[in-house]
């Protein structure tokens, strides 16, 4: 008995139910059913409290519903709490469904059009998903920064610490950030990623989730959103450049050189801005407010991470330049073919060409004697 997959990886074969292949082909449909269970539970009065624990945001510290006296109500502000773990679980399921939709209707069609190899296909799937995620992070986080006024008054990043309540959109942004990196772990199984790539991707997801959890838990949400938006800008440009290389090949044309320069410039600028922002916040802004150990640990982690990224970037750039140089030297040079020199043929005077060979020699001897007489 088998079920034809709707969203996810398609196959002509119908695998048995509850087999690994069945779960992989239909994982998006299965997870979407789980999401629907929570949504339906929210509509039923008896299960609504449990469902709202996963869907709604909790731990609000202020805000009121609209009333006759206050038609607009007051804005709800939130803080971090243990119930956010339930929200992270629910939105990680939503991320799995969105991942499958993007894979099915965009990335798979692109890969079929370009007929990519397995290694390039894996890189396309990874960078394609991360480009969309970092673009959403950049736009959503940038909008939150503008709404909160952090960009116009940088002192908001540390004023009033640790009493830093979040607006609804800002808290949801943090929950989605954590949910995305949680969902990347089961995606390794669902997308049939090679075993040798698991370690690198798990380290990447674990480091990103640890940063999100630390910034969220230690009430560094304001400076954290600024640092993550900067990082997403650099990652969006880097993965866009990588997609260009995957789809167009390693062409050394003006577009490739332009994107390479933009990628390097944005990367270095983001690293410097992150260091400046971190020093201003943790060394100067939070001095005397946050515990010294927390400030030193946060600044040390930030500086170490930026130096690590910069070191990897420089190493990779040097490696690519050396490979390009070796490739240029390995190409055989086109040798110019030398044209054979034509031997000059002594022209015979037109008057002598019609005479026999003996008479031609006689005339030649006479001319030589006349030339000798003239020389004397």
TrEMBL record:
The keyword Transmembrane applies. It is a multi-pass membrane protein. The keyword rRNA-binding does not apply. Pfam families: TRAM_LAG1_CLN8. GO terms for biological process: protein insertion into ER membrane; SRP-dependent cotranslational protein targeting to membrane, translocation. InterPro entries: TLC-dom, Translocation_assoc_membrane. The chain crosses the membrane at residues 30-55, 88-107, 261-286, 292-315. Residues 327-376 are annotated as: Disordered. Residues 122-322 form the TLC domain. One of its GO terms (cellular component) is endoplasmic reticulum membrane. Residues 335-350 have a biased composition (Basic and acidic residues). Its main location: membrane. Keywords: Membrane, Protein transport, Transmembrane, Transmembrane helix, Transport. It is found in: Membrane. PANTHER family: TRANSLOCATING CHAIN-ASSOCIATED MEMBRANE PROTEIN (PTHR12371:SF11), TRANSLOCATION ASSOCIATED MEMBRANE PROTEIN (PTHR12371). Belongs to the TRAM family. This is Translocating chain-associated membrane protein 1. It comes from Papilio xuthus.
